[in-house]
Specification:
The complex is a heterodimer of chains A (about 425) and B (about 160). By secondary structure, chain A is of the alpha+beta class. In chain A, about 25% of the residues lie in helices and about 25% in strands. The longest helix of chain A has 19 residues. Chain A starts with 15 loop residues before the first helix and ends with a helix. Chain B has a 5-stranded mixed β-sheet, with helices on one face. In chain B, strand 1 and strand 2 form a beta hairpin. In chain B, helix 2 crosses helix 5. The model of chain B has no long low-confidence stretch (mean pLDDT about 95). The chains are: A alpha+beta (about 425), B alpha+beta (about 160).
């Protein structure tokens, strides 16, 4: 290994200096003078109408500074939590239901935000939250993406008939169907890529602060992308000039995609800081992380591979039903469309590919990018198909891959799904493995 | 408060001995050691990961043994020797575990690291020459979502070697 700091040298990380000595500065390690503590009341029901919220007892509980609900959010005309991505290539523009920071009329997943209690002390806030009376009228709920568009499945949002967000497709359907019609062998696989919870070791945490002297806000928050949070929170939710909001992302204890989105809790502590005249700090419990951090995946897929007699791939046809949960998160359908289908060619020559995705809503936590965001889902299904093909056709599983790898002299290689690969030499890597 | 006046009900006063130093603190009696460390003592190196004793991020040493501070009442460890991540280094000298963690890339986001370092310290103090299996066993109460554990175990083995185990 090279000495010093030139190419090939082993270099120490600068952040280890503080991480290994207990001097890391994660958001919960930050305390602002005079801060108050927030606790959220979340829906225990996956799907329920809210006929009323009685906060009287909670407001009078010891140490309580404020108890805020969707009515307060609406009265202050806060914008809804936005989705920043709308895919092209859909039959119709996507259905994007509104997402208020605190719900008013109905709860759409277990964990949906119903009320916010702010108190001098966290335990006081938690005790007060237990005194809030919510008149829920439970509705039937659906957590299965495959059932989302059935006529008998309860409709979650006015804006989304049959719980459909969008129908999307990529590739040449006609050429693909033709290739399947002429194939010697077709491998068919029904796959579920189950919903995952990223569960970073550091629970989510946000601190909102307001400076009356210049009408500006500071949000300390554990986020993977403070600039995106700043843009969305200032422009869409608070509706203030961007320079009036500073977003500080200190050390972050893991994210894996779950700390990409702009969350309602971030907006709420920022907004509440001005309302109560004190910094407002919120830290998630681990159970809140499970409930309300964005989840990943949640695909139900039928995948088919068409082959010639000699084991060469002719075509790939995929249909996925992908849930985005109860509401669109910041990057919404990105993981189920343009981060998914374009990698379906893998390292193989597949002359024609078509991928259709039915994007739906279910009564589950919103889904967004998670550790690979669409690309693991595609890779998984492709390699499962190749494995099964090898078994079905009686061809060695390594040999069948070797026969179909894009050869070194074929680069740059244009796949049938938008992406062009600039370079590659796969066979030696297969040999080495 | 006048001399000799009793504390309000539900409040404890104590002098906690942490990393060899006395910390006089007053705290609600029902607060955990994790809360008192992070709040009254402003020692935020020890982390909250789950409040349930499932993840190990809150591990500290009490009289040399690894303890989950999120499940430990602070009032109950009054008079015991408490060691946290902040005391692992001696003045400006890093502990061999800390050097090894840097050398082997054993930390990524760093959030599980203080808990793991404390458990590793307790292990090496009672078993200076652990096998890989014994290290995995000792760490079985610590979750890491970033590293996959391999570099952590390599680092602990290397530190053991350094310490003459």
């Amino acid at each position: 290994m090279t000495e010093g700091t030139g190419i090939g040298a082993s270099v120490r990380r600068t952040e280890d200096n503080r991480f290994l000595t207990g001097k890391g500065r994660y958001t919960d390690d930050i305390n602002r003078p005079g801060q108050a503590y927030a606790c959220f009341l979340r829906s225990p029901h996956a799907h329920a109408k809210i006929n009323g919220i009685d906060t009287g007892a909670a407001k009078n509980a010891p140490g309580v500074i404020a108890v805020l609900t969707g009515a307060d959010v609406a009265a202050d005309e806060l914008g809804g939590i936005p989705c920043g991505f709308s895919p092209t290539g859909t039959q119709e523009p996507q259905n994007a239901p509104p997402r208020p920071a605190l719900v008013q009329d109905k709860a759409c997943f277990v964990g949906d935000l119903v009320a916010m209690v702010i108190a001098d002390d966290l335990n006081q806030a938690k005790d007060a939250a237990e005194l809030i009376q919510v008149d829920y009228q439970e509705l039937p709920a659906n957590v299965d993406p495959a059932k989302a568009t059935d006529p008998s499945t309860p409709r979650i949002h006015e804006a989304a008939e049959n719980n459909l967000c969008a129908e999307w497709g990529l590739g040449d359907k006609e050429a693909t169907d033709q290739a399947f019609a002429q194939a010697h062998h077709v491998t068919t696989l029904d796959l579920i890529n189950n919903r995952q919870i990223p569960n970073a070791m550091e629970p989510r945490c946000s601190i909102g602060e307001y400076d009356a002297s210049d009408d500006s806000y500071t949000l300390y928050t554990t986020t993977q992308n403070p600039h995106i949070t700043r843009l969305l929170l200032a422009a869409f939710v608070m509706q203030i000039s961007e320079h009036k909001l500073r977003v500080v992302s200190p050390d972050v204890g893991g994210g894996f995609g779950s700390k990409i989105p702009h969350y309602p809790e971030e907006a709420l502590v920022t907004w509440a800081a001005k309302k109560v005249g004190r910094p407002v700090k919120w830290t998630a419990d681990r159970s809140e992380s499970f409930l309300s951090d964005t989840h990943g995946r949640d695909h139900v897929t039928r995948a088919e591979l068409a082959l010639a007699e000699n084991g060469k791939f002719l075509a790939l046809r995929v249909h996925t039903t992908a849930s985005l949960g109860a509401y669109l998160s910041t990057f919404g359908a990105m993981s189920t469309t343009y981060l998914y289908a374009p990698v379906l060619s893998g390292q193989y020559i597949i002359p024609t590919i078509h991928c259709g995705v039915t994007i739906v809503f279910t009564n589950t936590a919103p889904i967004d990018a998670e550790r690979g965001a669409g690309r693991p889902e595609a890779t998984y299904l492709l390699e499962r198909l190749v494995e099964n093909t090898a078994r079905e056709m009686g061809i060695d599983r390594i040999e069948i891959r070797r026969r179909n790898l894009i050869p070194a002299d074929a680069f740059p290689y244009q796949t049938p799904v938008v992406l062009a690969y600039d370079s590659g030499n796969y066979a030696p890597i297969l040999d080495e493995a | 408060m006048e001399k000799g006046q009793a504390l309000p009900k539900g409040v404890t006063a104590a002098v906690l001995r942490i990393n060899g130093e006395d910390h006089p603190v007053v705290f609600p009696t029902h607060h955990t050691l994790l809360e008192v460390l992070r709040e009254e003592c402003a020692l935020t190196g020890t982390k909250h990961g789950c409040e349930l004793g499932e993840c190990g991020a809150c591990a500290v040493l009490v009289d040399g043994e690894a303890v989950l501070s999120c499940l430990q009442l602070a009032a109950a460890v009054n008079g015991r020797a408490i060691d946290t991540i902040e005391g692992l280094q001696q003045d400006n000298d890093l502990h061999p575990l800390q050097t090894a963690f840097a050398d082997f890339g054993a930390a990524q986001c760093g959030y599980c690291t203080p808990g793991i370092l404390m458990v590793a310290r307790a292990l090496l103090e009672r078993n200076p020459n652990p096998t890989e299996d014994e290290i995995y066993e000792a760490l079985s109460g610590n979750l890491c979502r970033c590293t996959g554990y391999n570099n952590i175990v390599k680092a602990i083995l290397a530190a053991a070697g350094q310490m003459g185990g």
